[in-house]
Amino acid sequence: MTKKGTDKRTQKRRNTIYYLEVFDLESGRLLGRLVDITVAGMMLISESPITPDRTYKCRMSLPADILGRSNILFDATCVWSRKALNSDFFEAGFRSLIADPGDIDAIEMLIQRFAFSDL
């Protein structure tokens, strides 16, 4: 499945300086590595295809303690998935469903501390 239609994103996604790991809590397996993020969504790169229109229970390991957290737990729905330009990998876009305001604050801090600034 490829990304459809126009980009409806309201926030600019920011690339992080680390490929942070995101795990599927139900299987315990690595879902993928973070490519870019906002408080509302993220893009992962993965070695295996990710099923679109499915909600995953996720854990993202943080590069350092942020607001007392070393991980963030959240649900994320895969909105699109496709083969990456490097055909050994897959890309997938997610909409995050984070309910805990503390986790949203931690993601905002992650973006401030570990994301590339706009040029």
Automatic annotation (TrEMBL):
- What's the protein called, per UniProt? PilZ domain-containing protein
| SUPFAM superfamilies membership | PilZ domain-like
Q: Organism, per UniProt?
A: Geoalkalibacter halelectricus
Entries under InterPro entries matching the protein: PilZ_domain
Q: Name one Pfam family in it.
A: PilZ
**Where in this chain does the record put each PilZ domain?**
9-111
